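Supplementary Methods, section 5.1.

A reviewer requested that the exact input to the structure prediction be made available. We therefore reproduce it here, unchanged from the version used in the analyses.
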Amino acid sequence: MDESGGLTVPIIVLRLLVAAVIGGLIGYERRMHHKAIGISGMMMVAVGSATYMLLAKHLAETDTAALSRTLQGLLQGIGFLGGAVIFKGGTDVRGIKTAAAIWITGAIGLAIGTWLWLLGVTVGIATALILFVADLVPSSESRAEEEHEASERESQR
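The structure derived from this sequence is encoded token-by-token as follows.
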């Protein structure tokens, strides 16, 4: 094991690539539905989270609180990003599913960055499947959105 706790360049690159692929898969699903964040955004959330955790693991060799502080800081940052995609208009709230996808994509990156490959990959695949399957069933939100768009088109005539 080397001084970086076993982190070699190929291992670092592999972890970041796995995080990017999983984030991209989740982002692809969101982009298919014209959501506020797409492939590159979700890839950046996953890769960024993995990167910060890799840095924290390195810092933890001399500062045992580094992991805890990194987790806390990332949770706040990811929450801020998620809040940015939630839109409220009257009693209508949109973007909750996308905000949750951002939140869990950050967690996937953290898991991959902390050696928990199986957890990160399993949660990533499960999240993508949940999103793909859930979007096959029209929700009341999508029906309301379609009705709103139809009434806007009608009023423009």
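The chain has a mean pLDDT of 84. These observations are discussed further in the main text.
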